[in-house]
Design goal:
Largest sheet: 9 strands, mixed
Low-confidence stretches: 1-18, 324-355, 380-384, 502-510
Strand order of the largest sheet: 1-2-3-5-4-6-7-8-9
Number of helices: 27
Length: about 625
Amino acid sequence: KMSFAWQVPILAASASGFAVFNSLKEGWEKVVKFLIRPERSQYSIDDLGPTRFQARSGAVYFREDLQIENAKGQVLQASHWMPENDLKKSQRPTVVYLHSSYGSRIEVLELIPSLVEAGISVFAFDFSGCGMSEGSYVTLGSVEVHDVCSAVEYLQQKHHIKNIILWGRSMGAATAISYASRDHQIRLLISDSTYSSVRHLLSSTIGQSLSWMPSSVIDVGISTVKKTIQNRAAFDLDTVNTIESASKCSPTMSVLFAHSPDDLIVPMEQTFKVMEAVKGPKCLVTLDTSNDDTVDGQTHPPHTALRPKVFFDAAVEFILRSHSVPAINQDLNYVTVQEQPPAPPPTVEVDDSAFDSDLFNKIISGKGSVAEVQHVSKAAVVETSNFANKDLITAILLNISLVCIRQQNFQCGSLYSLAATFMDKTNSKGWYRAAISLQGLDHLPEALYCARQSEELGGGAPATNLQNQLKLKITNNCMGSDQPTHSGVFRIVCQYLDSISLLDSYQEVVDADADHMTADQLRVSGNTSLKTGDVQSALSAYCQALRQLQEHSSDIIASCQLSIDPEEVLVGSLAAVLVHPTSPVGYHYLMDSLITSGHTTTALRAGKFGMSVCPDSSSIAALLNTARGSAGGATA
């Protein structure tokens, strides 16, 4: 609703020489109002939409409307959109949206769908002098920067939020950059159509309308506007210099710039100047707003037009990649949950030549190559991998890994997803989840290996997109191009094996109705809870389902005990322990594979936990002594 009526009397001045002075005076006054007292955005609280809603991903969000106070004691009206029952609120990325001089927090509604689908929280408020907040004037970033400070302090003190992203438009973009120059904890910023300084904004806008006038007259007009603003709103427009602020931002802060080449209010050249001053990583999205946008019968020029969804999608990808946060809710859409009972496991036909006894004898005598070891191990596992409820166990392991990832518990997410890859080696979802988890743990090359495995197994666009993100980040971090092998992934994961106690602790939460439900019914119940955002109930249901399937841990052990590859035994025994956390056989093979592969410290850790749940197991005790001897007397 930005009005440009101030240009009319200035343009009309050329038609009557005698009236030039009075017309210019009237024009300068309208310029002043345009800058510091544009028409307030009018809206009702109902215009912000429902206070509780469910995203397409299944996550339930709610909106909290609140008030914060700025440094001048003015009350600012704000809203906070966040997931219900969010156990990782402090670590979840939160976008603080900063609106334009002619807008309000209502602008953020454009962004909400894209952000909540990615699992991102959103905080928006009306600047002082705008919307429903107190205040008489807009200062184009001079006072607004203190409003941002109040918002950030609220989020940090009330919700202990650490990952704050600033997203600003026009005045909001300039204000975001100004704030980031003072707070180097801001590591990510999105700038939509910023101006390089208020003086540049004023000069370019007036200059376009009065190109026929001598520059000396324009300079006088600008000085007049500056003095009037100083007297009326008590701020110097020269103090808002976005180029200077950008040069003072942290060199580790990443900035996504966006601007329309058709923008006549703030020319795109002003964003280029600000980009040049930014020292950290930066990129530019060119907004396609070649035609004026018409909304509710009103025509909006490119500067104020609605933004295309492709811009929001690019910004979300930028946030997730820059913060090393996996696209959690993309995984929800990618991994569809099967509500029907699982089909009977297919019969695996094994070629007689697949398992070569002569080759097997060659390998156990120490003469086989690495490739021959892997071939024999895989054939041996396939021969023993068919048992009842195998597909159901795989589905539950995958669901638990999804819950862990949504809670940003990437250690457990990596364990459960890799266990699922052992259960079903052709399942691309397990490798995709492993890649997501390892990315969250900042093991980028290992995550890339898993993403490639997922793509090769038919993971589709999500796996391809994740690969591209990881390649870019690895390149930016100068980590080189060498990628780890299958063994490298499991060497990394070994350090997280102390998280196996997670399942046992969750199994203490028992639903009274669980005894009357089958394992598959419990899985379906967990899926329903997950869709409504009740992750704790979902996890409890999944764990109770595994409890009913604990007897199959011996089948899993049988699938891996013939393997000669230590990593194959490791992940198989890990799957057995996750299915049956009190199985002494599972811990025996888990410790044995760890000791064999040289991970004695991890073996000590696993053995210590194994003894706590299986205190009478002589085999675990013996392996614990072996691990202590191998580690030179080290303790867990």
